[in-house]
Structures are given as structure tokens and as C-alpha cells.
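Weekly structure sync, notes
Attendees: PL (lead), two postdocs, one rotation student
Agenda item 3: pending single-chain targets
PL asked that the sequence for the first pending target be pasted directly into the notes so everyone works from the same version. It is reproduced below exactly as submitted, 313 residues in total.
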Amino acid sequence: MEREEKRLERFRQLRKEIRGSQDYLVVGIDIRKDTHNALMRNTSGKILYRRLIFDNTGEGFETLLLQVEAVRIGHGLKEVVFGLEPTANYHKPLGEFLINQEKQVVLISPEAAKHNRPLLDGRWNKHDGKDCANIADLMCQGKCLYYEYPSADLRDLRHLLSLNRKLKKLEQGLRLRIRNHLVAQYFPELDQYCHWGANEGLALVRWCLDPAVMSGLSDEEFGKRLGTQGRTLAQRKRLSALKNKAQSSIGCPKKRVKLAAKMLMIAWTLMEKQEHFDPRYLSGQTPPIVARKAVKTDNGGIPKVQPERDRGL
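Predicted structure, written out during the meeting:
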């Protein structure tokens, strides 16, 4: 916490004095996946090192620090400030490395970089060298952002919350793909009689996607497949009406559509339930109904899919 307060105080001081100070070596870095590009200049606009290309590795980061220090000493400058434009997560290893080395690091807003780029030379073109100069120019104007680097626990919490949002988005996408792209083609009546907000719709797609299979099941077997206990009268009526509709379904009886639906259910199972998916379901066989529990497998629970020639497709 104390280090973060000191970094914030240094950033505030930088914003106040960088426009009129001649003591700063400004390093603008254009972030890429495998290599980065850096440009070094002073606040008056004189370029001291036009382009340094270094790898996104520990050795590359050390090369950057050695070259920056050589330029700083050679031109008699006192302070060094590094500027990065956030690019996905590619900038984070370099940013954290510089912060842990007690270097001053700031961020440049992508929106500010976009609007300032054509003002450098009156052109709309874009390349690595110009991006470095653009970042350094914004830093010299004081148009930079604080690089927040909280404690490890808080960073981990933020990462988990971000991952949770991404998984929820993926979950919703899988639900929509199952309903709009597969059920609508193969068993359209299913969408009208099931509750997709609960696990009922997913169980119907997993075990009773084929209307012929659903219509041939007894009420007891149908309940076992859905895993519903103590169903209400309204639910029993709704599922009974669905079974009646299955006998005259207008869905397209194509085997490849069935296979695609099963593959989506595998994705759903591995992401949401973390259960073992019986590969016999892909070959058209009906696996036995077993209690839902985690099953250890040699490949981490990922089902093995047989080639199409072995499934007779």
C-alpha cells in the first residue's frame, strides 16, 4: 500500500511538471505479441533513440533497461518515464516488470492515441514507428493515465471476476446456439414446452433430442432422464404435451444435426457441470443412467469422439 501511494504521488508530480521540465527521458513503447518497439525522446521533442525493437522476454526487458539507461546518462537526464498503450493483456508482463524495477510507468488511452495520431504529421497512416512517437507525444503533453498496480490478492480477485463474466457470456452463447441453431431445426416443438432457465431444457437436449426416442419412453423413464423429482402438476402436463408433440414432430431427421447438438452438449458439460460425458451417446447408443458425480478419466474428462467413418456417417 505504501509503494502504491508513492507511485501515485510521483504520477501526480509528473502530470504537473512534464510540460515544462527538461529532466525527463520519455520512452514510448508500442506493444505487440512477440516483440515491442520503443522510441526515446526528451520533452522538447528531440528524438534521442528512434527505434528499439526488443523481445517480449526477460532478456528483451533487460535489453530495454540497459539501452534506456545508456541514453539517459549520455544526455544527462535525471528521470525516466515509460508509456504503454494497453493492448489486450500483452502489455501487462512488461508493465509489471518495470513497476517491480521501481520504474515510473504510465498508460496511454487508445482513444487519445487514435485522435492524436494524425496530428503528428497530418497523415492518417499507422505503423509501429509512428505509434511509438504518438505515445511519447501524448506523454509529453501530460495526457496519460495512472498504471494501477494493487496488491496480489486484489489482482487475483479482479482476474477471477473477469473470468466469471467471460464464462457467463460463453454460457449464454451456448444456450442460444442450442436453441436457435439446433433445436429450431431438429425438434422445434421442444422450445415451446421446456424451461431454458433451469436445467430441464439442457437435459431434454442431452437425452431426448430425437423425437422418436422421447415418444418411445415411458413416463417413469422420461422422468429419470430429466432428473426431475417431485414434479408439479403443471410441469407434468407440460412434459406430457411435449411427448405427444414428439410423435408428429416436423424437425429435420439428419444425423449430422444430431451430432452437432451432442457436441454442443459436451462443451456445455465440460464448462458448466464438469461431469464426464459418456462417448457412447455419440455412437447412437443409450448410456445407462448413473448418479451425477465427477469421474476421473485418463484425458481429464474430455470425451473421445470417434471418426465419422467408424460411426457410419
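Discussion points:
- The radius of gyration is 30 Å.
- Residues 154-311 form a domain with the Helix Hairpins fold (CATH 1.10.287).
Action: rotation student to compare against the earlier draft before next sync.
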